[in-house]
Amino acid sequence: MLKVEHVTKYYGDVLAVDDLSFEVKKGEIFGLLGVNGAGKTTTFRMITGLLDKNSGTITLDGKPIDYSITDKIGFLTEERSLLTKLTVKEQVIYYGILKGMKEKDILEKLDILLKRLHIEEYKERKIKELSKGNQQKVQFITAIINEPTLLILDEPFSGLDPINVELFMDVIRELKEKGTSIIFSSHRMEHVEMFCEKLVVLVRGKSVLAGNLKQIKKDYRKKNIHVEAEKLDITKLKQVKGVLDVIQNENEVIVKIASEENVNDVFDCVKTCKGVTKFVVEDATLNEIFLEKVGVMYENKM
Prior knowledge:
By secondary structure, the protein is α/β, with parallel strands linked by helices. The chain has 2 domains: 2-217, Rossmann fold; 223-283, Alpha-Beta Plaits. Helices cover 35% and strands 28% of the residues. The chain has helices at 40-47, 88-98, 103-116, 132-144, 162-177, 189-195, 213-220, 234-238, 263-270, 286-301; strands at 2-11, 14-24, 29-34, 55-60, 63-64, 73-76, 150-154, 181-185, 198-203, 206-212, 223-228, 243-248, 253-257, 278-283. The strands form 3 sheets. The chain has a 6-stranded mixed β-sheet with strand order 6-7-8-3-9-10, sandwiched between helices. It has a 4-stranded antiparallel β-sheet with strand order 2-1-4-5, with helices on one face. Strand 1 and strand 2 (14-24) form a beta hairpin. Helix 2 packs across helix 3 (103-116) and helix 2 packs parallel to helix 4. 31% of the residues are buried.
């Protein structure tokens, strides 16, 4: 289990991470979110031992993180960190040896992962000859080749098409099932919703939203109602008690309401319309919650 407790980091007089605390249990996928410059990368670098913190503690399975246990950590960075003149095999061997693995074990695991990610034919190709998406696959392999206890994924789906995103997701879920603790960071909130049980949202290095994702959505209260009907009176809908907004899309209308208490009022309005084929109540998306919470925090800082 990873524990981050009251961690603070300054760059000179600039406060980059402010009294941050969270924990990631074994076999848990944890979301660390925030806009650019929020402190995510600084936090990742402190966890991996690349940066010293000013105060607080970071432990993995009860031990401070130093070079004696960094071999148990995998880190897929947002930036490309590949040596482009090396072949795929040479690159993965290099990273595997840095993690204390034997070359024989590296090559056995490499063949499995290349086949799993559908790039076995590129084993002897140089990194610079690969597409952006296939380079991302290689970078992913270097992060998991050592079967890490803790895996940090920073924008892992960058450059991937939907089919390859699914491939990555399957591998990540398997790592979770095997007990790997995973920190997942992405600007694509739908990906976070699919994976993460718990999360922290950072604004200027400080946690502004934290907890179980289901509870966060419950506490937010606002709901979205998806409606399909032949004719809807949008003006009338907007006048219903608790309706915050009505959005007309090509195939449906989305009615945003203040809380679940307003559902019946909206239903009473909609049922008078002809040809109603859909009336579905859903929680607000994580993207909506993120935008509102982070936006308010930025406004308060101005």
